[in-house]
Structures are given as structure tokens and as C-alpha cells.
Amino acid sequence: MHIVVCIKYIPDPEAAFSMFRIDEQAKQILPASGLKHVVSPFDEQAVEAALRIREAHPGTRITVLTLGDETSRNALKHGLAMGADDGVLLSDVVFDAGDSYTIAQALTAAVKKLGAVDLVLTGRQAADWDAGIVGAGMGELLGVPVLSFAKSVNVTDHRVGVERVLDDGGEIVEAMLPAVVTVSNEIGPPRAPTLRETMRAARKAVVKWSAADLSLNEGDLAPRRLRERLFAPVKEGRCEWIEGATPEEQGTKLAQRLREARVL
After folding, report:
1. What gap in Å lies between CA 98 and CA 136, rounded to an integer?
2. What angle do CA 144, 145, 149 make, to 5 degrees?
3. In this structure, how many other beta carbons lie within 10 angstroms of the beta carbon of residue 219?
4. pLDDT, tens digit, for every residue of 247-259?
5. Strand 159-166, strand 28-31: pairing
6. Average of per-residue pLDDT across 105-127
7. Most distant CA pair in the chain: distance in Å?
8. When comparing pLDDT for 40 and 224, which is higher?
9. What end-to-end distance do the CA atoms of the chain give, in Å?
10. What are residue 23's phi and psi, to 5 degrees?
11. Domains in the chain, start-ordered, CATH in brackets?
12. Sequential DSSP letters for 89-127
């Protein structure tokens, strides 16, 4: 079995908001110089899900795949240190202005180039923009089933079964392989890389592919999203004191005020 795990290298989501600046003119977020980058936590959990499947099915091969600049090699090295077998970096200037669709397009082309892939795993969403679109987009472009928000992933008899997280509980669903599964944080914490695996990952070569290697041109990677505005919303608070001689009178006036404001 061959599993591909798509991961993303992002600014640390635990960083303080003050570490970021919004350029409203360019419609971009500018992280502070020296801000730490990490593998998106949901993607780490997708790698963990792949490793658990390999434990149940020895001989399974795991490839970690990412799109980004040269610093994204660090994400691949982390995935390799966790226990993945191969790493593939998609890097090209034509990817830089992409949106969720173009990212899904490039990752899908890479999966096809890798050959016979049985299962694609992604995080439920990247922890920078929190869009959660790419995984489902890949399933659409690959023409395979998508099972989302998985808290557990199991493979048996050429089928993948997941327990999905719902607002009011969960559900168990299955699909034939090949398929795409987006992994949720309920799967549990990912394993920490061992020193031995970290040293092995440091020596392991990472394959790098450009858009031309994937037979993609600028037309294929034209964004479909138009960002009209990017800004930090202004939060305003207003306090209104409810007068009253007794708690009962205050309560009555509060209820009336809430009714006037159409809250009740």
C-alpha cells in the first residue's frame, strides 16, 4: 500500500497576534521577522494516522508531500523524522499566487506523478487560514471518495473506514480505495520523532518538482478566488448599567432592555 500525506509549513499558530501585521494595500499578512514556522498540527496528525496504518499493515510506504518555498523542506524533514519513507517538495514561483484550488491542482498532479497511490491523507484544515478546502478539492480532482473529519482511520480489504467527528456525536463511514481522508485532531497527539529517525531524516534526500515537472502551466494554476479585502476587524464593546432599587427591579429592567434589543 502507498499512502501520501499532504502537509503544510506555516507560521506557528500559537504565536501572539502582535507577531503579525496586515498589509491592507497588498491584501497580505506579514509575519514578523524570525517568527517560528511549524508543520500545521492537523497535518502532523495525518502523518500519525498514516503511521498507525503502516503498523497494522507492514510494508506500507508513506510519502510526505508539501508545496512551498525551500524552507518547506523543514516540514518534510519533520515528516521523515516521524517515520515517513519519502518526501516530495513542490516549489515554483508560479505557485506563489495560488489559492486553495491551485494548491489542490498541484498536489493532485504530484499524486498522479507518484503512480499507484492507495490513500491520500490531509489535515482537516491548515492552521493558518483554516479554510479546509484542499483535501476535498483533491478528492474531486482525483475522482475518488472523500471522507472528512476522521478521528480514526482503518484500512481492511481494499476499503478505508473512518469514524467521523460530528457536532452532536460521530458516525462510521467506509469507502473503496483509492480515497482521500481528512484527519481531525481527535485522532490524538502525534508521536515525537526519535533521535535515530531525526538523524536518518537529515541524511535522506528530498525530491523537488516544479510546475513543469508536473506538466502544469500558468493557465492551469490561475487562481479562482478574488480577495477583495483583508483587514483586522474593529472590536467595540459597550456597557450599559441597569439601575434599580432592588435586584428584582434590576432583573425586570434587564429583561425589558434585552427584549427591546431583540435578544429575548
Report:
1. 17
2. 135
3. 6
4. 999 999 999 999 9
5. unpaired
6. 96
7. 78
8. 40
9. 57
10. -95, 95
11. 2-209 (3.40.50.620), 234-264 (no CATH)
12. EE--GGGTT--HHHHHHHHHHHHHHH----EEEEESS-T
